[in-house]
Amino acid sequence: MGLGWIGYVTALEKLPASTVGVLYMTYPVFTLVIAWAVFADAPTRRALLAAGLIVVAAVIAGSPASVPAEHLPTLLLSLAAPFGFGFGICVLVHRLSRIAPLARIASVSLGSVLGLAPLILGAEVGELLPGEQSDWLLIVGIGLVTAFVPQLIYTICSPVIGASQTAVVGSIELPTMFAVGFLAFGETITLPQALACALVLGAIAITRSRKTRTVSAVLAKSPKQ
């Protein structure tokens, strides 16, 4: 996942943010393909339809600009982010369900740290450390409220609902961004954004897990060797 974010950040240096953002929202498609090809978890028709709706919603919301031919390699590089995230979801659901949730978070975070280490080592110290003492409180708050707690919930629930539904439900981040912009920054929600929100919510509504599972059932099931 760390390498995926490197590709994502690199793409942002040359491509419009809307284009890169739209490509990132293709991760439900990568999740379905990887789950099917690597873990023999065939997607349902509902999951395929939901993934398609999410991609359409992202395109409508982002209105990506046309990419010049010389930037096509960078465009392909940016796909490392949705691929890495989709692969991470599949591994979390199919391989890490037997270990404790905190250990799952640690394993995923370790991969991100190792992948991002080259960027950290190549940056100036002043770029990494907060300038004001009060900024440390903001960092702690961000770490707990937007990272640790959501990731803990995510790692507990993902093996229960399965890879495809995890990816589709996770796409709620798109309408969430619009809601935060409206409530916190007074940004106007445009008609394309409202339509994109409706498509994402529709995708979440139609998707279903292939079978009902409980936390105890997931923990009792040994991963395939």
UniProtKB/TrEMBL annotation:
Broad class of the protein's primary localization: membrane
Membrane association type: Multi-pass membrane protein
Residue ranges of the TM segments: 20-40, 47-66, 72-93, 105-124, 136-154, 166-185, 191-207
Keyword Cytoplasm attached: no
Superkingdom of the organism of origin: Bacteria
Any GO CC annotation of this UniProt entry: membrane
Protein name in UniProt: EamA-like transporter family protein
Organism per entry: Ruegeria meonggei
